[in-house]
Write a structure and sequence with these properties.
The complex is a heterodimer. By secondary structure, chain A is of the alpha+beta class. In chain A, 47% of the residues lie in helices and 12% in strands. Chain A has eight helices and five strands, in the order H-H-H-H-H-H-H-E-E-H-E-E-E. Chain A has helices at 3-11, 20-23, 31-52, 59-74, 83-124, 132-139, 152-157, 184-187; strands at residues 165-167, 177-178, 191-199, 215-223, 228-233. Chain A has a five-stranded antiparallel beta sheet, with no helix packed on it. In chain A, a hairpin with a 4-residue loop joins strand 4 (215-223) and strand 5 (228-233). By secondary structure, chain B is mainly alpha-helical. In chain B, 66% of the residues lie in helices and 0% in strands. Chain B is built from nine helices and no strands. The longest helix of chain B has 23 residues, at 24-46. The termini of chain B are far apart. At the A-B interface, helix 1, helix 3 and helix 4 of A face helix 2, helix 3, helix 6, helix 7 and helix 9 of B.
Amino acid sequence: MTCHELRLYFEDPSRTDDKFPREAERLGHCTECAHFIEVHRELGAGLRLVRESAPEPSAALEAAVLANYWRRIAGDPTHVRSRTRRFAVVAWTAAAAAVLALAGALLHPARRLERSKSKIELAQRPITETSAFERRASSVPWTNTASAPKTRLRSARQPRRDPQVATTKSPASEDFRSLMYCDALSCGGAMQLIRVQLPSSAAAFEPAAAAPYEAIYADVLVGSDGIARGIRVVQ
Amino acid sequence: MEIPHELSTHSDAELLRLAVAGEEQAFLLLYGRLKSGIFRYAFYMTGSKVNAEEVTQEVFITLLKESHNYRQDRGDLAAFAFGISRNFVRRIARRERPYEALPEDTAVATLSGKLISESDALPAQMIRTELAGRVQAAVASLPDHYRQVVVLCDLCEFSYGEAASRLRCAVGTIRSRLNRAHALLADKLRPLRSPQPEIGATGPEGCLI
């Protein structure tokens, strides 16, 4: 037997060790072959140890597989997981829910605070500090917001207006009648426009209405000090 | 649970057909035939008993679900089940790749050197456990195409023909891959052995080739 044949012999999975002693006599003459055989024997012993140390599938696995089988036969697509897997799924779901709740709790107050700050800034903005965009918007005729195109630019730059309370741009430019003496200093600052309903007889400055007891609507300008500065009948 | 004798003569494919039709005994017999190979393959490939059980369970669920996709002319049912288990093993490997680091060669060498130096002081059982762990780690560190062959032929004790049908390659490919894998394993486990003798220590005739 040559060294090559010896190696082929050891690489053959169908070899049996009872054939080996007949060929062993030549090992004393070739150290490399002896080393090769030693390596393969040690590797074989190690692999045998790994084979023997393999665990057996647990009884819970068979129960779970059988339960899944019956669910499958009954037409229920949900699977019965083993206890470890089920626990892992529940734990991960709970963790994800907790993270989402925490993120929501952290983000919600911050967003509310931001919104309230923008409201305060809007309310406190002086009349003279209108932006160029607003000035441009006030120069064009009013259009219905429902028919106007809702672009991102518009929604980002133009604050949402309250339907009943809104800041005014310039009282002098509108048809407001003054309700008190108003100098430049007292008229400075933010003013609010409030629409009120009152009997036409109360509007003594207006020409007599067709029906004296008919309700009319009027816009009232209220300063930041809470005092009405002007009124305009709208209907 | 006792399996009726007449069922034991049925082939795996017939048992699957009966199981899908609602025959519980057929399913149990099929489970008994296939579970060991699937579980052991999954265990050696994933290195985890929990993952191996998960794979085994998923394989049988998929077998029932995809039984209409099995074609007898393309191979036996065990090979079909093995293909499913191989896909699940790959899926688990992808899932757990960020969390599990395979031991590097240097780590294996360091561990084996330490093992040799302490081998006299350790009880035999601990040495066996350590050795098995080292060999398993060395197998796990092999490239996938070598590892598949070692797991099937050496650890699951499949024949070359069975391994070839499972992996859908030629028997010669299995043989050459196994030889190469053994050489790699021997290199990885080299520190465990005594140092190689000098060339000059060969016998008077030397090597014949």
